[in-house]
Amino acid sequence: MATARPHPAVEPWQDPNAEPILRIEGVTKTFGKVYAVDDVSVDIYRGEFFSLLGGSGCGKSTLLRVLGGFEVPDKGRVLIDGVDVTRVPPYERPVNMMFQSYALFPHMTVEQNIAFGLKQDGRPRSEVDDRVAAMLDLVRMGQLGRRRPDQLSGGQRQRVALARALARSPKILLLDEPLGALDKKLREHTQFELVNIQEKIGTTFIMVTHDQEEAMTMSSRIAVMDAGRIVQVSTPSALYEYPANRFVAEFIGAVNSLAGCVVACDDERVVVRAHDLEVDVVARATQPIPIGTEVSVAIRPEKIDVLEQAPSGQENVVAGKVADVAYLGDVSIYHVKTDSGFVLRVQETHAARTADPHYQWGETLWLAWREADAIVLTS
């Protein structure tokens, strides 16, 4: 998975002197006996495009509503620029929210929709007009200001909603599944548009999404949530290459997870007896792991080399037969059933032009991977 966003030379979350624009401290929110958000703490810095990523019911939308002031937490605090806003109503926070439905006023033109919040604030007419023009220019809608929402495409309505949300210059913009209503091709195009707009204006964006590719493409950092808790916060590349546990490894991208037991470990390597493959798997050690510890070994499908002949003297090699093939144009996905009966997923990129997968059903292959590409997870 590639990311669209270039990271700054100095990342603020790695700067001990940087002050977060948003600090979430021990926030808990329950509905009856259900913990929707469970003791969440995280700092978000000025100018970040930060994503809350997780499946349905993980608590990400509830946390976003707490940040927006639409829910009051049972415990914990929310601070914006050092000011406690935990019990401050939404309209008094330096925050705006862009809803998944866009919530545009159908009887108003594009210009009137964008101007609505500014007029509610009592801004002078000339200031409102200048700000609306600037927002229309920002989202490239200058020629469509007189149209109503029902005369716009889905992508255009999305841009109007963004312009309206940014018109009042909030310190933080909250986005609730902002691209969920768009088709796949338009969604991919709009991801880059949103990133470019955010970088141009420098507003802190916090987005809720269940789409891992969307989060990976757009975010400076991602918080992966499960059962109301944040299980890992990191950059997209670090989440993918260095997941903290099996849940993150399996949620971010495709992965082969092998259950096993540590049989040897030193400062550089760990050897795991993989129960699924009935062979030893060698991985790079990041910390000592006691012999006998039950672990998981995660191997990304694209890290596995496909060989037509058995290599000699190489570790991390298993044989198997092709059980399923999926040709996706730029890549082919192979499900290879190993001699132990376990199925490994393998991804091969088509560097040369081809109309067919390289390997066919029933063909015997040897799969090999480097020890550095095997991730040992203890939880």
Number of helices: 8
The helix content, as a percent range, equals: 10-25%
Structural class: alpha+beta
Number of strands: 20
State the major sheet.
Answer: 6 strands, mixed
**Strand order within the widest sheet?**
6-7-8-3-9-10
Give the helices and strands as they follow along the chain: EEEHEEEHHHEHEHEEHHEEEEEEEEEE
Radius of gyration: 25 Å
Short synopsis of the structure:
This protein has helices at 60-68, 110-120, 125-138, 154-166, 184-201, 212-218, 236-241, 246-251, and strands spanning 22-31, 34-44, 49-53, 75-80, 83-84, 95-98, 172-176, 204-209, 221-226, 229-234, 256-265, 269-274, 279-284, 294-299, 305-307, 317-327, 331-338, 343-349, 364-368, 374-377. By secondary structure, it is of the alpha+beta class.
Task: Describe the protein's architecture and organization.
The protein has 379 residues and is α+β, with helices and mostly antiparallel strands. The chain has eight helices and 20 strands. A hairpin with a 2-residue loop joins strand 9 (221-226) and strand 10 (229-234). Helix 2 crosses helix 3. The longest helix is centred in the middle third of the chain and has 18 residues, at 184-201.
